[in-house]
Amino acid sequence: MSPRGEAVNVQGARDRLTRFAWPGPLVSTLDRLAAGGHQAWLVGGTVRDVLLGRTPGGAFDVATDLAPERVIERFARVEPIGLVHGTVLVLEDGLEIECTTFRREAAYRDARHPDSVEFTRDLDEDLARRDLTVNAMAFDPRSGDWRDPYHGLADLEAGVLRAVGDPLARFREDGLRPLRVARFTATLEMEAEPETRAALAGARDRSALVAPERVRGELERLLGAREPSRGFELLHEAGLLDLWLPELEAAFGVPQNRFHAYDVYTHSLRTCDAAPADKPRVRWAALLHDLGKPATRVVRDGDGTFYGHENVGAELADARLAALRLPNDERNAIVHLVRHHMFDYRSTWSDAALRRWLRRVTLDAVADLFDLRLADVVGNGTRFGFPHQLEEMRMRIEALLAADHALSVADLAIDGADVMRFLRIGPGPRVGEALSALLEDVLDHPEWNERATLLERLAERRANAPEAPPTP
Ligand code: ATP
Ligand code: MG
Predict the structure, then answer these.
(1) Which residues fall within 8 angstroms of residue 438, CB to CB, at 6 or more apart?
(2) Could you give the dihedral angle defined by the CA atoms of residues 383, 384, 386 and 392, in that order, rounded to the nearest 10 degrees?
(3) How far apart are CA 174 and CA 107, in angstroms?
């Protein structure tokens, strides 16, 4: 029995942890940390996920009483990823093992960085500074020893997220923790217990100060959940969503039109849930794709319209993702999806129109745009716009690609050097202009993409063009 009265199967849990096929390099890392009378335990998500019957994701979490400098000395390949917190990433045989020295909670006066770190030799003190009871269990696979001073197993079995200690105090120590609760609500599909839930908003001023990189890390993990909406809903209900995604919060209650069952906010969450969980870009784009709707909403004939919302949304998404410090290439790819999510394919599109669309969105983005569109349709919550058109579009694109027609300047049968030689010009904007003009011709007439024909077209252009000054 746990102190809260649930029957807890401790033996079953230990059996599950003991039987788990822990990788050899992980166990030998524990051995090496423990050499000379030290302690080394599996902790955090590693223990939790195995108890849930999941494969632990990301790095293995290890806690030890060995000082960080000593940890570094004992391994050939390490990265001091969070040395101020006593965390060293050990790389052994392709495994990533996050080794954190036992420590007590240190105050984060500026809510960003701990003022000081106090190490300890006591595992229970280390478990006390962890955020949630389900994350505060420890297991040693070499001895089978098990520690669960905060009854995380009972909470895990009951599907409950509970702060270790006083929730408000814990959230005020580190304003990221409310966001972690939202993340775990979605990834673990558990519910915050009432006191933990009630305390979420109480650290708002602290949460507002958390470094954007940490926020991004949690949002990315939240977006990998089966239904990220669970986490976003919790943040919205706690009045915290506007801290990190103000444009999404602003979409709350914004009505749409007869094609939609939901307001813009709910539609965004449903679309995000419907996007593939293993495609983070599509998940982000799905979440953000309609951010431009609140600002572009105009009522015509009694129904909402949102002309140009994809461009306004792309700008808003760009700024938000920059503020969250997403790497530039990720941000650009997501913004590109938002900007192009409104394509309105019809059977009447000519092949040239389809080729022009492909050139505009680029081949790399086509699969993601299709995923986004399908999710968008599901997210509408109505039966309007069933995507049989999309299936036809997909088949036509495949046929076009099989024909291997030019879609970009690089696919043309001549290149910039040919243009310069033929037009007797040097490098400069005119070269690109000539190639772009040829591509326009070829998009309409794929059969013109031959060297001789393209040079003929160039000759015509030269004859028709006003005399350009000779380049030196
Ligand atoms: P994941 O499966 O995503 O790795 P995790 O729970 O292991 O989830 P990590 O960020 O790897 O999360 O952290 C490892 C452990 O460190 C957590 O389980 C928790 O015990 C502790 N921890 C991490 N971040 C915090 C925090 N902000 N406050 C308190 N404890 C934390
Ligand atoms: Mg972890």
Answers:
(1) 409, 412, 414, 454, 457, 458
(2) 170
(3) 8
Whose CA is closest to atom 17 on ligand 1? 44
Residues with Cβ within 6 A of ligand 1? 44-45, 57-58, 61, 130-131, 135-136, 174, 176-177, 180, 221
Going from the Cα of 60 to the center of ligand 2, the distance in angstroms, rounded, reads: 6
- Closest ligand 1 atom to residue 176 Cα is 27
User: Which residue among 52, 60, 130, 137 is best mutated to probe the pocket of ligand 1, counting the most ligand atoms within 8 A of its Cβ?
Assistant: 130
To test the ligand 1 pocket, which listed residue (55, 61, 125, 134) has its Cβ within 8 A of the most ligand atoms? 61
Predicted TM-score of the model (pTM)? 0.91
Averaged pLDDT for residues 40-67:
96
Q: If you take atom 5 of ligand 1, which residue's CA is the nearest one?
A: 45
Lowest mean pLDDT of 1-15, 129-143, 194-208, 421-435, name the range. 1-15
Contacts of 383 (CB under 8 A, 6+ apart): none
Percent of the chain with pLDDT over 70: 94
